[in-house]
Amino acid sequence: MVELYDTTLRDGSQGEDVAFSVEDKLLIIQALDQLGIHYIEGGYPGSNPKDVDFFKQAKALELQHAEVVPFGSTHHPRYQPSEDPNLLALLDTGARTVTIFGKSWKLHATDVLRVTAEENIELIESSVRFLVDNGREVIYDAEHFFDGYDDDPDYALQTLWAAVRSGARCLVLCDTNGGRLPLEVQDGVRAVRAALDLPIGIHTHNDAGMGVANSVLAVQAGATHVQGTFNGYGERCGNANLAAIIPTLKLKLGINCISDDQLRQVTDTSRLISELANLPHDERQPYVGKSAFAHKGGMHIDAVRKNRLTFEHIVPELVGNEQRILISDQAGKSAIAKKIEKAYPNYDKNSPEVTALFDRLKVAESEGYQYEAAEASFDLLTHKVFNGYQPFFNLVGFRVIIEKFTDHSMRSEATVKVMEPNGVEEHTAADGDGPVNALDNALRKALERFYPSLQEVYLTDYKVRVLDTKAGTGAKVRVLLEASDGQDHWGTVGVSENIIQASWEALADSLEYKLYKDSRGGATGT
After folding, report:
1. How does 380-404 read in b/e, with b if 16+ C-beta sit within 10 Å?
2. In this structure, how many other beta carbons lie within 10 angstroms of the beta carbon of residue 364?
3. What angle, 0 to 180 degrees and rounded to 10, lies between the N-to-C axes of helices 22-35 and 266-276?
4. Could you say which DSSP state residue 77 is in?
5. How far apart are the first and last CA of the chain?
6. Are 494 and 504 within 8 A, CB to CB?
7. Alpha-carbon distance 40 to 32, whole Å?
8. Which of 34, 148, 163, 445 fits as disulfide partner to 156, beta carbons 3.0 to 4.6 Å?
9. Is residue 335 classed exposed, middle or buried when 0-12, 13-18 and 19+ CB atoms within 10 A define those classes?
10. Comparing C-alpha atoms, which of 332, 327, 334, 362 is closest to residue 348?
11. Would you call 64 exposed, middle or buried from its count of C-beta atoms within 10 A (0-12, 13-18, 19+)?
12. Residue 89's pLDDT is what?
């Protein structure tokens, strides 16, 4: 059995641009509990009022699997343990299990704490004993252990013995600087296991890009407690990423640290934490990123169509992810057939329709269209080729006016004339913050008379890419839009030398896709 210890809410929140409110932390705890995490480090109650408030509210949570753990340090040299505000704050949380860290590296004892090597050992022993005597189970984090062990192995082990003598339940060996290599970590874990008879844990940082590897090799060397953060959040380059460690332990090493059903929640949990951190989800993360099982090269796609194990190291559904086929100028007919097989299962790469779609895509890509992030536009294009698909509306014309006034204010107005399939025209105008916003407002105003469900659609992102920088202001641009109706998200694309025309194409596709999706009962074609 391997214990999973999440420190996203404490160590992870020390990462640049990462911040969680108390409400965010409570939501994350519930998600991690459902995932099957054993210990959740909630924060440092001795450092700030927000964490004190958090631990008060966390007591009310009815958790099924996890314990919420406060974090602190050995007592300050000026205080006795019973007088130390940090240790008393840990007790005040009422938590059954607490985690404290102490110095393993003689350099830190003398240069940071400004105590002798012997005094540092006394700080560790007396702090752990005080907490144990007050009925707490203690997880002891040996900070900078691997650096200290490299500098003075005997002293680093003495600091661990101090925690053992005073009753610590688990010793966690920390690569706090994140610079140690996997075999160094593995050798250190083995040395500690040979010297001490107590459960050993691992806590690694990612400054050399080895956080996950170091954690996994530590487990292979006998560690039974693994600390990390979701999405690798943490100070400097971050901590070891639990979103990669957990699937690796379970699927590669056969360690049932969580159940199969819980493993399928890993991707959703990772995304939830990104959302609550208000950070873009790293789509190139192993296991949980959108790109983790995305295939673009034609030969790769042809291979996974025949046998997905050819280019996928696990079945993506095991971690709650999915296979994605990317359509680009590198794709062949096999890729297209694979991409559309759910909607059109009876077509192969030699079907005339697949060939026609392949030709349309090659021409479009050569003109600057890109469908990897615009699958709604690809979906519409596919159905036009296969079904002679008729649009829900046609553009008669539009006009955009931009005015700048002497007080430096600006005004954008768009006029749109569209026709619905029965030949009824609608001619409307609307203002906006800018020309694209005005065009969007006018188009919606015109169409909502015929299609009220378009009121549900809102834009979530708008990107412009200049395709030929040498052409200057006359360059062709690609506009990518992302939209949502509160249930689904989709992307569309437009390309033109005129940014307004490119934006119109993407806007029109976005609203068209909503109507097409609704006409199919919410199902998408590809």
Report:
1. bbbbebbeeeeebbeeeebebeeee
2. 19
3. 170
4. T
5. 41
6. yes
7. 8
8. 148
9. buried
10. 334
11. exposed
12. 94
Share of the chain above pLDDT 90, in %: 62
Q: What are the beta bridge partners of residue 418? A: 395, 426
Per DSSP, helices labelled H in 308-374 are 333-339, 352-366
* Identity at 91, one-letter amino acid code: L
* C-beta neighbour count of 461 within 10 angstroms: 12
User: What is the three-state SS of 101-116?
Assistant: EEECCHHHHHHHHCCC
Token pair for residue 395?
A: 């553009």
Q: Are 78 and 87 in contact (CB under 8 A)?
A: no
Lowest mean pLDDT among 3-12, 333-342, 434-443: 333-342
pLDDT of amino acid 348: 81
Provide mean pLDDT across the span 257-272: 94
Which tens digit of pLDDT belongs to each residue from 285-306?
999 998 899 887 767 767 877 7
Decide if 86 contacts 46 (C-beta within 8 A). yes
Query: Which three-class secondary structure string do you get for 411-469?
Result: EEEEEEEEECCCCCEEEEEEEECCHHHHHHHHHHHHHCCCCHHHHHCEEEEEEEEECCH
Complete domains list, the chain, with CATH: 3-276 (3.20.20.70), 290-360 (no CATH), 393-450 (3.30.160)
Which residue type occupies 334? Answer: S
**Exposure pattern of 120-159 as b/e (b: 16+ CB <10 Å)?**
bbebbbbbbbbbbeeebbbbbbbbbbbbbbeeeeebbbbb
**158 Cβ neighbours under 8 A, 6+ residues apart:** 121
Q: What is the pTM of this model?
A: 0.72
**Dihedral in degrees, nearest 10, Cα atoms 205, 207, 212, 213:** -120
1 C-beta neighbours (distance < 10 Å), count = 9
Beta-bridge partner residues of 228? 6
User: What is the phi/psi pair of residue 156, to 5°?
Assistant: -60, -40
- Report the alpha-carbon distance of residue 357 to residue 369 in Å, rounded: 14
> Closest by alpha carbon to 244, among 201, 184, 287?
287
Structure tokens at 89: 């704050």
Quick: pLDDT tens for 477-496. 889 898 999 888 899 999 99
- CB environment 89-108: b (16+ within 10 A), e (fewer): bbbebebebbbbbbbbbbeb
